[in-house]
Amino acid sequence: MALQAYSVLPSAISIHKEGKLSMSLKDTAFLGISINDHLNSEFSFPGLKSKIELSQRNKSVGAIRAQTAATTPAVNQATPQGKKTLRKGSVIITGASSGLGLATAKSLAESGKWHVIMACRDFLKAERAAKSAGMSKENYTIMHLDLSSLDSVRQFVDNFKRSERPLDVLVCNAAVYQPTAKEPSYTAEGFELSVGTNHLGHFLLARLLLDDLKQSDYPSKRLIIVGSITGNTNTLAGNVPPKANLGDLRGLAGGLSGLNSSAMIDGGDFDGAKAYKDSKVCNMLTMQEFHRRYHEETGITFASLYPGCIATTGLFREHIPLFRLLFPPFQKYITKGYVSEEESGKRLAQVVSDPSLTKSGVYWSWNKTSASFENQLSEEASDAEKAKKVWEMSEKLVGLA
């Protein structure tokens, strides 16, 4: 649901432009500094020192340790009783420069319990958004990620690993939605843009970061993929044409290139709104397949969610003007399904951190009193055999098989 507008300009231009900006990620440089080396230098006394000097040295060391505890959230500090205090959690959120992603980043950062890695295509937009939201600099880091380029995904993962930050939660949130497009646009690798970005880009990202999640020592490590009510045909909204339908996956098997196969997963004619809905079905199927393959082995919680209808979100920026004008009041006063970006962000933040939402393989929703509950997915979005096929085809398309 997030809400990042992806350009259809050649990826090389976007990456080159953003690549320069990504060089400004100096706020993580402190992770490469050895605090122990600094502390050891404090204890290098040339000869016998007086008790006064030793006392001064110890005070200096104490100050350094206090500063380290304040600025390095990844370190567990021991109490005098030998108990460990909980470090800040480390969460990656894709598409965190606007909409649901930004609202979630803000909610987690303001809690003081999380350091947010804002994984965004437009570095400057993300920086401005974070400042506008009032997020404290010590609570977030911006890193370049263009999900419409698999090379960019791999570069992001490499950069993240080099930062030596832990990874406790990954939130796959960014999305492309082109409901009025008459012709398909394509990713750097030649996949239809909506499925290539929303599903394949996130699929590769999650697979490459899975080992980092496994290594987390955080009380609850999680991988969250944002779903959508529009991909569930067991709902009223999911039955608004064009309905999601992956068919026999012939388009996905053919590479979604529009050349030797259809640009649509089911092999049909291109429809921008349906491409988005199909990508959301893939997201929800992928979450369940992750759960089946890895939950028992790793203890990672895999979940999806629909936080409610964020009718004012930038996701609809490419819709017709009349729709953008009428849709918010329709959701507020007719369906009563309207949810603000702030509220939706709090809901996703719940799935990230709430101890009561640790059940894996669940698709979360909220009722009118904002209470969370396990929702039911449509027959297609919960088809285990189709999930397995989507997984295996996706592995081949992103170069993992």
Automatic annotation (TrEMBL):
EC id: 1.3.1.33
Subcellular localization: Plastid, Chloroplast
GO BP, one annotated term: chlorophyll biosynthetic process
Pathway: Porphyrin-containing compound metabolism; chlorophyll biosynthesis
Natural source organism: Aquilegia coerulea (Rocky mountain columbine)
Keyword Chloroplast: yes
Catalysed reaction equations from the record: chlorophyllide a + NADP(+) = protochlorophyllide a + NADPH + H(+)
InterPro entries, per database record: NAD(P)-bd_dom_sf, Prochl_reduct, SDR_fam
Name by which UniProt lists this protein: NADPH-protochlorophyllide oxidoreductase
Swiss-Prot/TrEMBL keywords: Chlorophyll biosynthesis, Chloroplast, NADP, Oxidoreductase, Photosynthesis, Plastid, Transit peptide
Known role: Phototransformation of protochlorophyllide (Pchlide) to chlorophyllide (Chlide).
Main localization of the protein described in the UniProt heading: plastid
Pfam families from the UniProt entry: adh_short (PF00106)
Entry keyword Cell wall biogenesis/degradation: no
